[in-house]
Amino acid sequence: MEKIKLKISKREEKTPNQLRREGLIPATLYGANVASESVQLCAKDFSRLPAGVTSHMLELDYEGKATNAIIRKVQRKSTKDFVYNIEFYKVDMQRKVSMSVPLRFGGISAAVQAGGKLEENYQNIQIEVLPDAIPDAVEVDLGMLDGNKTSIHFADLKLADGIKCLNPLDEIVIKVKAAKAVKETPGK
Questions:
Q1: Which residues contact 188 (CB under 8 A, 6 or more apart)?
Q2: C-alpha torsion angle, residues 57, 62, 64, 66 (rounded to 10)
């Protein structure tokens, strides 16, 4: 997976609201065995990042020094797409991290073709993985849903070597519900 690059700098001696009015987002950079630092970044640069950026590795340009990080939290205003604050987690490339990545559903289900309806229970999976092996998504093969098997559990997912699922393995990711029979009224 390609790293996304983003430029950050040490936070100026201004209030967070002053920074936001100037088009900057206040943020925090922290990590294991690392002191927490207050930083800032350009709101316009952050808005140009892809939608699924929270499940990607970032290469932060922190005052000329490359720093590997992931986004742990983005605080937004609920009614707008306005970002109040971001938490960056500085990663050690030799230690596993836990994070959420999207599930990508693909394939054709014989049970759905026979009239069943798909019911998604999860859209993301929690995994533990080395930072340089974070997948863009985890594939879910709907072809496993046939007449005999009507649900896919986390235990059924095929994960690459080195990736561990942190969700309960007996939880259902997606299932097929039988189509409801239409009751016909005689004489009409």
A1: none
A2: -30
Q: Please tell me the total count of domains within the chain.
A: 2
User: How far apart are the C-alpha atoms of 164 and 43, rounded to whole Å?
Assistant: 34
Q: Would residue 145 count as lying in a domain?
A: yes
DSSP 91-118: PPTTS-EEEEEEEEEES--HHHHTT-EE
Residues belonging to the chain? 188
Q: What is the pTM of this model?
A: 0.76
Could you read off the pLDDT of 86-145 as tens digits, one per residue?
999 999 889 999 989 999 999 888 888 888 888 999 999 999 999 888 888 899 999 888
Domain match, 155 and 86 both = no
Q: Is 65 exposed, middle or buried (0-12, 13-18, 19+ CB in 10 A)?
A: exposed
What is the pLDDT, as a whole number, of residue 54?
76
